[in-house]
Amino acid sequence: MQEVFWEDNNASIKYSSGKWSRAYGTIYHGSAVMRTRRLGDSMSVSFQGSAIKFMGAQGWDHGSFLVNLDGEETIVDGYCCGPNGGVPQVIQFEATGLSTTSHTLNITNSAAGPSGTVLEVDALLITPHPETKYAFKSHISLVAFFVLLAIILVAVRRRLIRLAHTTSYQMLPMTSNPPASSASTPAAPSALHRRDKGTPHPYFNESGASGSGSGTGSQTVPQYYAPPATDPQLDDALVERIAQRLARLVHEDAPPTYETTTAA
What is the pLDDT of residues 121-170, one digit of tens each? Predict the structure, then answer.
């Protein structure tokens, strides 16, 4: 994984109240460092990653400092180079193979060197865990799936409501006693049946007389009525089957229950 730089002024880095000040120069990473000369001054940072590096500086006026990572302490000597010498952007502490839990790094200016007590904090280099990236992608994918699932459920429900509002009539022959609630007028036979050219109408004899008259070819003309419209109902069984199918896709133990509304 690629290392991530946290500069000396990163908001996650906390400095103790003391003699900390910011020094600038092109020799530093990000053109600046946090510096102190007072013993006991410290910085602290919490992070998550598989590795961390502390970048500071060595110099003739630097002392030694104490590094504490999750309770394990290490003394680092920052002195080098003789009078007026120094080396910027030095990796002075490194830890690898860290667990996926949160870690805390503390650095304390602990002791004077031969010519001074300077401590400089330039940057931290943190290596993220590979699982962090994949877990983030997995989380986004799961959110996208549930958003898509919600859109599908809304679309299905709207479709069922539209179907419920579509009233379908079936023309049925009337008996001798048509339903009392039917107020429709019987339709003419010619409006209900298609007749090809040259084909006698099935409800009239050859002489053109109505089938209600006498004769061997006479037939009784049936009357038709449309059944009274009833309140449309949503197909609850269909909604339940769709919900169960979608629940199995997300590996739930039981299908969710959806409340359906009867269209008025």
Answer: 999 999 998 865 555 566 667 788 888 888 998 888 888 887 776 655 55
Query: What's the total number of domains in the chain?
Result: 2
- Whether the CB-CB separation of 169 and 182 falls below 8 Å is answered with no
* Surface-to-core class of residue 255, CB atoms within 10 Å of its CB (0-12 exposed, 13-18 middle, 19+ buried): middle
Residue 30 lies in a domain: yes
Q: How far apart are CA 101 and CA 116, in angstroms?
A: 37
Q: What's 122's domain CATH number?
A: 2.60.120.260
72-87 pLDDT per residue, tens: 999 999 999 888 889 9
Domain extent for 29: 4-128
Q: Are 163 and 238 members of one domain?
A: yes
